Amino acid sequence: MGDPIKKTIVVVGATGNQGGSVARTFLKLPHWKVRITTRNPSSLAAQALEALGAEIVHADLSDSDTLAIAFQNAHAIFLNTDFWMTYRTLTATMVAQEEHQSVEDPAKVAYQTEVSHGKNAADAAARVPTLERLVYSALPGISKLTGAKYQSNHADSKGAVVDYIETELPQLAQKTSFIYLGAYNTNALLSPILDPSDGRYRYFLPLSKAARMPIIDVKESTGLFVRALIEDEAPGTKLLAYDNNSYLTYGDICDIWSKASGNDVDFTTVTVQFLHESMKIPMELISSLPALEEYGYTGSLKVIQPGDLKTAVRTKSWEEWMMGRDQKAILEA
């Protein structure tokens, strides 16, 4: 008997944290071929995946023709679109040119760019006759979930792509699942700062210690959850993905940080405006934070959680990850 026929998964964004995790996970599965798309096939990240056995294809989310080629004969696609690259590039340009008033809002441009990229990829995926599963890495659309009380361009853009797939591409939607990742384990919101006024470490957030945050080790865990969505779960699943015992209150987060760092930590509830004006944090990063406590991480979205998966995904908890870190690295995060 010959070798069993392998299926092909195309990973869009494989040189990033999420896509890299998905590519590495599927490269370990003997019944899958992994094809990754990248704008720079010669990058170190792309070359490292090629050395592991991945097929490298040049493609650009702004070029539908390249996506059509990259998606040929795919059985599964993992799609992650990127808001932050556009946002950071435009913000850096504004700072360098000191044109804060004469250029478009970087967050609005990044929103439009990400939505365009998501639609291009979805349209291309919808034309692949062999496709069985699409998994899109989404975020809850904050404006929609809160009745426009709060806005988050980087979340609303992904929410707009979800809406486009579900409303404009019904046949593709029947093959699609969505993964909503918790906060990255390296997210700055999970680390306090050293308060120069008294030399103590302190969280400054527009939340109370009762607010809950799901946390995920994106490099290690994303691929495991995507594999479960593709191989075990029915299409149409919306998964809130976070690590074992890692849907934590900020009280829990404070306790774990203190234990791992060996330092006491305080928690101070402040306003969004305070963070923006006193700490110079861009509003795009913080304006919707109060919604976390008021509406929850996924609001009224009908999601399943890791414990609801048909096959258990075993991951290291955020506490275990923190306890394994060097104390100096924790304090400097």
Task: Name its key features.
seven-stranded parallel sheet; globular; 13 strands; three-stranded mixed sheet; Rossmann fold; 333 residues; alpha/beta
> How does the helix and strand content classify structurally?
alpha/beta
Low-confidence stretches: none
**What average pLDDT do the residues reach?**
95
So what's the CATH class?
Alpha Beta
What percentage of the residues does DSSP assign to strands (E)? 15-25%
CATH topology: Rossmann fold
Number of strands: 13
Helix content: 40-55%
What order do the strands of the largest sheet run in, or round the barrel if closed?
Answer: 3-2-1-4-5-6-11
The arrangement of helices and strands along the chain is EHEHEHEHHEHHHEEEEEHEEHEHHHHH
Domain NmrA-like: 6-301
Keywords: NADP
Pfam family, one: NmrA
InterPro entries: NAD(P)-bd_dom_sf (IPR036291), NmrA-like (IPR008030), NmrA-like_oxidored (IPR051164)
